[in-house]
Amino acid sequence: MTIHITYVSDVLCIWAYVAEARLDELRREFGSSIELEYRFIPIFGATRDRIGEGWKERGGYAGFGEHVREVAKAFPHVTVNERVWNEVVPTTSAAAHEMLCAARLLTDEAAVGSTRRADLGGRTIFEEATWQIRSAFFEHALDVSDRNVLLDVLDRAGIPTPALEAKLKSGEAMAELCRDIELRDQYKIEGSPTYYLNEGRQKLYGNVGYRVVSANLRELLEQPGHQASWC
What we know:
alpha+beta; Glutaredoxin; four-stranded mixed sheet; 10% strand
């Protein structure tokens, strides 16, 4: 039995950055028993409105940056650069999402390898690319709303620039991004990150501990055929 998980996130979300380690552990623990599908939603689609205006009474971008660093202090496996949301302020997460949708298409078409690689810690090239974009912003304070920055990060992750640009030029990447947003509404996704499983019967949203996610998956694996548990 293989459990399909749709993992929905925004690359600028601190909770999704923190949760990457949980995805790595899920892949290690469950292996071929799970199938991960990645979708992106624009929680930070317009940071001027969400942070610049939304946090105006709490220090604006600088106040939000301090909040993000305070969150990160509880998770020693991640680093947040002091320049994040102070000097480096991406205008949108949607630019990165469009690039990753292009990369996802290339993976689906086998133009980019989909095999999990030991040299990438068990990630596929696409999964590594997603992590590298998150890390580029939070750890290295690069503006991941900048097209050239994104192309450079993805190229170093192993996704060739000409292939990405072809998907962007054709509109295919944008169509994929729009589909992700349609699925957000269809699945009634509330925020980032969200694990959507068991055909929507279970949705785990936000800073959910690893053991909670693992327990839900084990319950599904031990109750095959959508058999309901009374306990």
